[in-house]
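User: Show me an example of a complex going from sequences to structure tokens.

Assistant: Sure. Here are the input components:
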Amino acid sequence: MIDLLKADFYRLRRWNVFYLWILTATGADLLYEAVKRMILHRQSSFLQMMISGTEQKILFVLVGILMMYYLFLERESGFLKQTQPLYPKWKHIVEKVIFTALVALFTEIFFFAEHLGKAIYFKTEWTGVELIEAEAFFIGSIFLCTAFGTVAVCLIEWLRTVWGSLVILILFVWGWPLHLAFEKMLSVFGAENILRYGMFESFADFSQNIQEGSFLQVIFISCIWIIGFGGFTFLARLRR
Amino acid sequence: MQKNAIVAQQLYYSRYGKVMVRNGNLVVPEQEIYVLVGPDGCGKTSLVHLLSGMEKPQRGILALFGNPEPSMQEYRKIGTIFEKGGFYDTMSAKANLKMKALAFGNYKKELIQAALRITGLEKIARKRIKSYSNAEKVKLALAMAIIGSPKMLLVDEVLDGLSKEEKNDILRILKGFQKKYKMTILITSREMDSVQGIATWYGIMEKGSVISQFPAQELGNNQEEAEIPEEIQKAKKMKKRGKRL
């Protein structure tokens, strides 16, 4: 499994798309920062809610798409097929989970550093720094979700029937909004409050918060994910 | 007594309700160059997929290197060359070879150099695969196949679309592999003519079944089917005892 990981990282190092993506995402993030500052200048609480933590989610969706494309290329080249008989299936899946999770982690660390640089440059107050600190929290969710996505891709790749892949897809499609809702709940109320009032009460409060946009944001991101992932999966199935 | 690299009996494989391999009977002796000939869609590629472990047969017996229950250890001894070469167009030949060697856990600079030298790719090793001709891509697939130091090569219809000179060049490399590394080579082809020079055994495939096989020197003579090898007998005994195959 370590051998497969080494090979994957070597290939990633040689993949110019990855560097191009990092540069583009950094540029886009800086642009986003400028737009955010313009919006915050208007002191609108709804807009504040809409944009809080959005960059992390977009970043995550992009990492997911990039990783899926990477795996797709592996399948198209025939390399995956050739190494398939050499290792048990579970090793392939675990290796891909570890690989994509590490890539997601490294990218997030890179963006954390970039954000920190931004905070120092703009001489942000304590609240700003706090926000950046909070970003580190997202590492966990990115880690988990990319891994989850990869497992789904791996399973679909090896599943023999359309029904099997449909089950995985449904699990993923339903699992993803639930995770996002939970993550949003944590960022809105804070882990401390959730622990104090309990999960269900917090969720009820969170659902009432719909007019402030957080729930809409969850649905919006979920829809993007469903369209992206569903399209990718069914295109892959059609090709077979 | 000559050992067999592959012994397959009555392999059966279907996909999405379509029977790809109906009666895969095959005996490939070690260190021979076996050519499996058949028309398009007769199941050659599917059979090679079964032999390489990429697909599992739904029925039948497959023994590799004398083991009637082939494990990853046996599959590691097989190098495969398919239409999809298993390499990345955006990387150089050298990088592709290094990646394959890392995946196999046997990365050595000398091994990569040797693979490039024997396939004649040394001069263009640092160029991206995108700029390679079809023949050069086939050579790279050959180089990648020998990276894992296999005992047997499965070559699936890679000669199609190449000129006569290019085909001869590829066959010369394959012949070199067989001599230098004492490899068993199985080549599938649509026509007998293009591989006639190097084949030592022939198998004829039609509608998912291997209908006959014979040594190259007896080409044209009626050849009786080979006797049931001992690997098959051993596997049959194990099956009777209820062991999973």
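The lines above are the inputs; the final block is the predicted structure for all two components together. The two ends of chain A are 27 Å apart (CA to CA).
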